[in-house]
Amino acid sequence: MGKPVSHSLGQLDIRKSVVGLATGAGAIYLLYKAIRAGIKSQPPLSTTSPICIARECLGSGGRALPQEAPAPDASSLGGPNGLAIERERHGRYSGELRRLLNSLDYKQDEYTKSMILHSITRCVYLLEAEASACTAEDIVLVGSMLDDKDSSVKIQALNTLKAFSGIRKFKLKIQEHSIKVLELISTIWDSELHIASLRLLNNLPLPDFAHPQLRRVMPALIEILQSDYILAQVQAIRLLSSLAQKNDLLYDILNCKVHSNFLNLFQATQPGSLLFEVLVFAERLSEGRNTPHYRAVKWHYNEESLHEALFGDESHLADRLLALVIHPDEEVQIQACKVIVSLQCSKDVGLRPSSCPSQSFLH
């Protein structure tokens, strides 16, 4: 007699599974062979290549290994512990960051400088102890790259300074470059450069000596805010929100000229991250106007100013805010309510800001 049908079907399913597994394993093996063959077929890296430098192809003292010498593999460096980050975790300096800094030279071509700076930035974030062991001279070296004629080098230098700014002892030294960074923002219209510059400035306490330059750059910051590049817009509005809390800069911000459609930034269709930051900015401007220090002076604003767009008699900001109270994003809702409360306080000239409802009652 023949075998039961169920038994035959079971065997068939097993065969299919085996065949499937074999096929899958074969595919993985073929993929492995293809990748391995591709790696072997790649030409050897030039020792002057910045990619080679980034892969630890530099010898001691920052000199490149001979071109015919193979780059050290993981086994020769002690297996997984050969990785720079692993060596630091075990209390041993890799020296990688120092080699990269030593290899940086203003005479190099733009691509090489950009790649080295990019690698330095990564090392600063990953190798905390080695980054902390760097010196003020290293910051000066990186800062000098802001004068390079190539925008990509400037951007990478800004990113590197931003990485170093996370280390407390370098903040004051990096502050010395703030005037140059502000100059880049106002003289070069490049969104990527704007983002890198503003991220750096937003990570620094800006010194008082930078305020005159900030006044000159204010129109450029407002213009970036009204651009169509959200990453640059968010960074610009964060800096402006911080500057709005400076008594000596508030009027300069409020008197900046804006486009006729400036209030479109308060539309519900704007990305939530931008909309929230714009509302924070409006709240801080409103708070600043309410302070006795600011009210003590009778200020005059031009008709196309930010002040008139937000707080003038013809402004439609209130209508925009009411629409945002039902925004899907709860943070936007709360922030819109905060601005409404602040505006209500400013309408009653007899009220001191301290007698207005608490700004935190909506949390």
From TrEMBL:
**What superkingdom heads the lineage?**
Eukaryota
- Entries under Pfam families matching the protein: Arm_2
**Stored InterPro entries:** ARM-like, ARM-rpt_dom, ARM-type_fold, Armc12
Provide GO CC annotations from the record: nucleus
Gene3D superfamilies per record: Leucine-rich Repeat Variant (1.25.10.10)
Q: Where is the Armadillo repeat-containing domain?
A: 96-306
In Swiss-Prot or TrEMBL terms, this protein is called Armadillo repeat-containing protein 12 isoform X2
Organism name: Hipposideros armiger (Great Himalayan leaf-nosed bat)
